[in-house]
Specification:
heterodimer, A: 255 residues, OB fold (Dihydrolipoamide Acetyltransferase, E2P), Ribosomal Protein S8, Chain: A, domain 1, five-stranded mixed β-barrel, 7 helices, 15 strands, B: alpha+beta, Ribosomal Protein S5, domain 2, five-stranded antiparallel beta sheet, 10 strands, 37% helix, globular
């Protein structure tokens, strides 16, 4: 049940049957493939701290058009591989000459990945409920590895975010999040999502974020909300800086 | 011009910089130093200062370089023109091209290339200050940068050099030892001791080579320990905080664990069981998102 930080090549289990995602088996032992957080609940899995989105069928993603060909829109989906949306996968019939009018270069859309073949050709679809072009709101980028955390178990986190922020939210598996609401609400929500991203490996986040969005700021939460950079040298430098400030202040006093 | 010292090792067995023959120079590491890179690492090893950056996996151009079934690891070693006393001509040289090639190959056995077919992972190792052993320092930094970028790897690579001065084998040569010593043998290896890079400059007897490899293995283990320490302690404070939080609200724990299982279906394990589990996860996820869209 315990979660811990692991590095690539760390032995996670002696029992090869326990190998889950993000691990590999070598001579009967299970090793980590990633630098990330290991979870050993019945099967050991490792979730990396970072990484690029790799398209997989049936994922919902947010993409923007980078090129329009005679029969395809080519979308950037925030992955090493571009996505192709064929005109036949567009909800209505579009003539080749009218394609740029429907979705032009730079336009964003919610898409579903229809298929990915072995050479990583990504076919997209817009023929499904909820898939559409995005004309308003804003899109923010997060790491794709944090997406499940932002959605939460059975959508617990995202439904809370929606309720507390009064914004419309759509989370793409590729780490792009679409928001729509009042400007100040969206700003607050963006901050909340940043906190989730930085604190994704800690527990008790849902309650914390909920309080944050309700502006219930006790001192303790205020302290927590600042994303702390994890550099080890931070301490020495603050101490040093304090000393310098002290010197400056004493100079001023003399003057 | 010779600033060659008369002796490299004094009567007490100490070297010019006060180290013993089997001691490595102090190492300082900082990860995630570049905001625009997918993974980065700054490493100081003695007087060496190296910056490694990883970009990718990303689309590979020109297309003819793409490998249909695996990712290409492109490693570029470069010395800044100001990294040594006499300014070196910037740009690729015979030496840096060679080091780029062999260092890139040092990562071949560990990087799981099959996950990103046709893409490229770019590794840039920039030497800011050189003091012997820059290629090994660059490899040590690049390993951590790759881990930081979330690249799947079978393990970490650590590199160290062994050499011969005054007829004696010494670990991790410094500048004078490198310049005037009798041999220099840089080695990179995985955690299992599998050698992924081995070069030699100078002369060693077969016995010395074997003994040197034993020494360098110990050196690499020390470096691996430092690398592990850096990786684990990077989020160390956070981890403690997380545990505290767990105590505060225990009902949260099962939730968050479930969520994490949902991630990254692309990294399937060979086992069919695992795949089944993943499929379940996908459906769960879909339900979750169905809610989102109302």
């Amino acid at each position: 049940m315990k979660r811990k930080i692991v590095y690539p090549g760390q032995v996670l289990s002696e029992n090869e049957k326990q190998a889950g995602t993000g691990t590999y088996v070598h001579e009967g032992k299970v090793y980590s493939l990633f630098y990330g957080v290991a979870n050993d609940k019945n099967r050991v899995t490792v979730v990396p701290f970072s990484g690029k989105y790799i398209p997989s069928p049936r994922d919902y993603v947010i993409g923007y058009v980078i090129e329009v060909t005679s029969s395809n829109w080519i979308f950037d989906i925030g992955s090493p591989y571009d996505g192709l949306l064929h005109v036949s996968e567009y909800p209505k019939r579009v003539d080749s000459s009218m394609m740029r009018k429907e979705i032009g270069i730079g336009d964003c859309a919610i898409l579903r990945i229809k298929d990915v073949n072995t050479s990583m050709k990504v076919e997209l679809s817009m023929k499904d409920r909820g898939l559409r072009r995005l004309d308003e709101g804003r899109i923010i980028d997060v790491s794709t590895t944090k997406v499940p955390r932002i959605i939460g178990h059975n959508g617990s986190m995202v439904s809370m975010l929606k309720k507390e922020s009064n914004c419309d939210i759509f989370i793409g598996q590729n780490g792009r999040i679409w928001l729509k609401g009042k400007d100040e609400d969206m700003n607050r929500l963006t901050q909340a999502i940043e906190i989730i991203e930085n604190k994704s490996h800690t527990s008790g986040l849902t309650n914390h974020i909920s309080a944050f969005l309700r502006y219930e700021e006790s001192d303790e939460i205020e302290e927590k909300e600042k994303p702390v950079p994890f550099t080890s040298s931070k301490k020495d430098y603050t101490e040093d800086a304090c000393r310098k400030v002290d010197v400056l202040l004493s100079d001023e006093d003399e003057n | 011009m010779s600033d060659k010292p008369e002796r490299f090792i004094d009567d007490e067995g100490l070297r010019l910089d006060g180290r013993r023959v089997d001691e490595i120079r102090p190492m300082k590491v900082e990860m995630g130093v570049l905001s625009r890179a997918d993974g980065s690492c700054y490493l100081e090893w003695g007087n060496n200062k190296v910056l490694a950056a990883v970009y990718g996996p990303r689309e590979l151009h020109p297309r003819r370089m793409q490998k249909p079934n695996e990712v290409l690891v492109r490693y570029k070693y470069n010395m800044a023109s100001f990294s040594v006393e006499d300014r070196i001509r910037p740009g690729p040289s015979r030496r840096s091209t060679e080091i780029s090639k062999v260092s890139g190959e040092a990562f071949e056995p560990v990087v799981m290339t099959q996950y990103y077919p046709g893409a490229v992972i770019d590794v840039f190792a920039e030497v800011l200050q050189a003091d012997a052993g820059t290629r090994t320092a660059a490899i040590n930094a690049a390993t951590l940068a790759l881990a930081d970028a979330g690249i799947p790897m079978k393990g970490l690579v650590s590199a160290c050099a062994v050499g011969k001065v005054d007829g004696q084998l010494v670990l991790d040569l410094n500048k004078p030892e490198d310049n005037y010593g009798q041999a220099d043998l840089p080695v990179a290896m995985t955690q299992d001791g599998e050698i992924t890079l081995l070069q030699m400059d100078g002369h060693l007897t077969p016995e010395e080579l074997e003994e040197g490899l034993e020494m360098v293995k110990k050196g690499c283990q020390q470096i691996l320990e430092i690398q592990r320490e850096v990786l684990v302690s990077r989020y160390g404070n956070e981890d403690e905080e997380g545990e505290e939080a767990e105590e505060e609200s225990p009902e949260e724990v099962p939730d968050s664990e479930e969520e994490e299982e949902e991630r990254d279906d692309s990294f399937d394990n060979e086992e069919s069981e695992a795949e089944n589990a993943d499929e379940n996860d996908v459906t769960e996820e879909d339900e979750g998102e169905e809610d989102e869209r109302q």
